[in-house]
Amino acid sequence: MRTILFILTLLLCLSIFSQGVxxxxxxFIVQPSTNVVITGNGNWTNNATATLNIGSWVRFSGNxxxxxxxxxxxxxxNLDANNSTSVxxxxxxxxxxxxxxxxxxxxxxGAITTLGNTASVTGGETETKRLRSTSNAGGTDDGxxxxxxxxxxxxxxxxxxxxxxxxxxxxxxxxTLLIRGHLRQAGSGSFTGNYSIFRYYEIQPTVQSNLTxxxxxxxxxxxxxxxxxxxxMYQWFNGGGPNFWTPRAGTINTVANTxxxxxxxxVLTFYKVTLGSITIPLPVELLNFSAKCDNxxxxxxxxxxxxxxxxxxxxxxxxxxxxxxxxxxIPSRGNSSEIVEYSTFDFSPFSGxxxxxxLQTDLDGTETYFExxxxxxxxxxxxxxxxPVSPSVYNVDAIVRGKSGSNYTIVLTDVLGQxxxxxxxxxxxxxxxxNVYENILATGVYFLTMRSAENQISKQIVIxx
Length: 465
Description:
By secondary structure, the protein is an all-beta fold. The chain is 0% helix and 54% strand. The chain has three domains: 7-277; 282-379, SOR catalytic domain (Immunoglobulin-like, Sandwich); 382-465, Macroglobulin (MG2) domain (Immunoglobulin-like), CATH 2.60.40.1930. The protein has a 17-stranded mixed beta sheet that branches. A five-stranded antiparallel beta sheet has the order 16-17-20-24-23, with no helix packed on it. The model is unreliable at 1-12 (pLDDT under 50).
């Protein structure tokens, strides 16, 4: 049986559909300068072919959730989100001229919205009128949807398509895909339970070039529990090992709701940036925690680089590394942004191995354990230590001191706990210089940790500041 194609051509300047638009067969053609207004909770459902000519508008003006759906994609000329609740994008679409935000949320959900190479987001975003991405039926779980809005441009610069990322490349990027998403980004390394704000950007250039991020915009509704004054930009990075989030130096403008920073070229062929904060990875930034024999006692020392709402530390001890008892409690500074040194003594150490761990308690009772360390004063009095040697963005060396013939593990991590490199060595003497890492490192704070059978020592290093 021959299929009869049904062609509907809208010639009116204004066409109102309270029950939505459903294209199930044939062609649905919207002429230039025509407004298709969908009110109430009406949806746009395209299961066939919809042709929306240049200059036409589809306006969602409902008062309940409205959906863009169907088995076929739709290429809109202009789309107006003027819904007091949300417009859900439930299948991939394209917009050739303008995505206008008039009222409510344009919820990307799990679909891709592609803007044409001259299209832009208009109307300005506010706390209650913005792009976002949710996943549950009610659209209340901000930051959980994988939907994105994206556009492709040649040699982009500035605030491309008004997507809220203003950047200047050091050199022309060529044909470049710019993606904006709102899925919260998980931390790396030891901080996979921490998450970014509800916005990130990804730039996929043809030619890699370092970027100056003039403004990474954000809204308070996207902060995801981060304190605005503590925001910091992070770049998804690879220096030759695993991928990890590395913090980038920059400033936060809490009046304009923007962050600025720079990116660094790395092994990855794209740049992805988001905002986190300097406080969520740990309430206390621990520089080192060590113990040494001071016969007949053991001296225990630690340093912090910053403290936020810290109440006190508890040093716990154990003969086997499993069963711990409190040794002492040390009051803290409470809040500090400078290096603070702490020390205490164990005047009754166990014979053989002594295991210590540090427990930090916040003012609200929240507790955080730091890594375990071990010392054995019954063995030969050997000085174990690791000393960074002129670290740079291209090379990290360290002097390792210990017992000749003993095995030591040297680990380089970033501020989020992500392991960048790890190597085992057997000392040929009481000390030797070891090349820990020879590759590009981003500007930032890192930690060198030496582990032996009896001890663990960490030292902070600063790259590029």
